[in-house]
Amino acid sequence: MQRRQFLQSTLAGALASTMPLAGASTSLKYVPTVVSGDIQAVTGDGNPITLRASDVQDFSNRLKSHLLLPHVDGYDQARLLLNPSFDKRPALIAQPTGVADVQSAVDFASEHELLVAVKCGGHSASGKSTCDGGLQIDLSKFHGVRVDPKARTARVDGGSLLGELDHESMAHGLVTTAGTVSHTGVGGLTLGGGFGRLARRFGMTIDNLLELDVVTPDGKLQRAAPDENPDLYWALRGGGGNFGIVTSFLFALHPMQRQVVRARYSYPVAQAKQVLRFYGEYAEQIPDDMELSFSMIAPPGGAPPVVSLGVVYSGDVSRLEGLLAPLQKAGKTTREQVSTMDYVALQRSGDFDDPRANGSYQKSGFIGAIDSRMVDVMVDNFDPKPNRVTWFSFQQTGGAIGRVAPEATAFAHRESSHNMLSFMAWRHGDDPSEHVADIKRYWSNIEPLTRGFYSNDVFDETQAQINANYRQNFPRLLEVKKRYDPGNLFRLNANIAPG
């Protein structure tokens, strides 16, 4: 309605009468949103604030793309995340298409001390990429990947998705660690550390990050690299979105064949403990170019849980038979699947059944060795119910991940052997209280066996738990936070509160 009223205004009519039709059509592509009245919003501290229409209009005028307000086309689509349970309503949404727009959005938020949420892929497990009453900066229209095959690097815009990076780099026979679901945002995954199917071979995503361009809370565009703002470069590799909005990533790429091997072996649920014990022992023996995972999933409807071991192998196929043979003896297999698969297709394979697209809740934790006590706790307390998905799994770490010193980047959990995930998902609209209570009860038995958690999986941890999770790197991260974001403009993350 606002856009239509604007087009009918005297100014629009005057412009139309003095410009050729084609020129008018081109110019209208970036017509600013008309702000018809003051807007009620909230600050980062949760206090109410009134944004004057003239100030918001000036902000809109500075943007190349539309500023989205409630009841404007595109607003409802932009505000939602992958998990539809997060039904929040920002006061306004900026959708930058370039660095200048990001700077304008950060300047406006800083000037008014607004609550700020930054969204890319919308995968935030705890809903921190949207907010009620604040400014959501939606980077989804600011994307692109440029590969330099000679230098073996990829320059990635801040709003890009992992699938874009995989698609462009693999076209040159090059790759880097980039998650497991292609519609994940590059920014969110990378800044928290970045796991993926190739992390044991090539290191975490942050281990392949050569430099970044970042808009800091003062609105400045700064380069973060080993030779420029090295403190910021260090902090952005595992410190999350605490320090600004990254507008460009430069990644190192590695040669790899396009075809990889994917295998899955399923076993009866009665053999869950036996298979999990085997997994803990065998995972310590395999080479870096093999990723081995364990999962136990109870689907909705009351069907028996499924126990399985999964493999992604990117190495020499002549070694494959010997590496897979032990999995056939881990238990009585009920199903065996081994196939060669295009790596980019593999990265897309979980896009459409991602359970986070329903209501969900999760807990995660890093562990060392999988011992008999852990096996008993995990399996004996497993509590499936027919009205949800109940799931726990182990993502293998180690390999190249563990050969980086814990202090070399802000990500400190280098000694872990696995990231353990406990997860429940239910139909959107169902009462979540039963499921949340169940997973918290389940996790209360498991958490004492863990040492910290993946910050990208932060959910409702206390500030003390978040601080402790950065471990020995927290004091240095706190100093960087105080230097670049003393007002805590960027707080919707695994937050480092400056005090």
What are the SSEs and their pairings?
Layout: H1 2-7, H2 10-18, H3 21-27, E1 39-42, E2 48-51, H4 53-62, E3 67-68, H5 75-79, E4 92-94, H6 99-112, E5 116-119, E6 135-138, E7 145-148, E8 153-157, H7 162-170, E9 174-175, H8 186-192, H9 199-202, E10 209-215, E11 221-224, H10 230-236, E12 245-252, E13 254-255, E14 259-267, H11 272-282, E15 290-298, E16 306-313, H12 320-328, E17 335-342, H13 343-348, E18 359-367, H14 372-380, E19 389-396, E20 418-426, H15 433-446, H16 463-469, H17 474-484
Parallel strand pairs: 4-6, 5-6
Antiparallel strand pairs: 1-2, 3-4, 7-8, 8-12, 9-13, 10-11, 10-12, 14-16, 14-17, 15-16, 15-19, 18-20, 19-20
Helix pairs in contact: 11-14
Structure write-up:
With 499 residues, the chain is an alpha+beta fold. It folds into three domains: 107 residues, Uridine Diphospho-n-acetylenolpyruvylglucosamine Reductase, domain 2; 111 residues, Uridine Diphospho-n-acetylenolpyruvylglucosamine Reductase, domain 3, CATH 3.30.465.10; 194 residues, Vanillyl-alcohol Oxidase, Chain A, domain 3 (3-Layer(aba) Sandwich), CATH 3.40.462. Helix content is 29%, strand content 23%. The strands form five sheets. The protein has a seven-stranded antiparallel sheet. Strands 7-8-12-10-11 form a five-stranded antiparallel sheet. It has a four-stranded mixed sheet with strand order 3-4-6-5. Helix 11 runs antiparallel to helix 14.
Computed Rg: 24 Å
According to CATH, what is the class of the largest domain? Alpha Beta
Query: Mind telling me which CATH architecture of the largest domain this is?
Result: 3-Layer(aba) Sandwich
What topology, given as strand order, has the largest sheet? Answer: 17-14-16-15-19-20-18
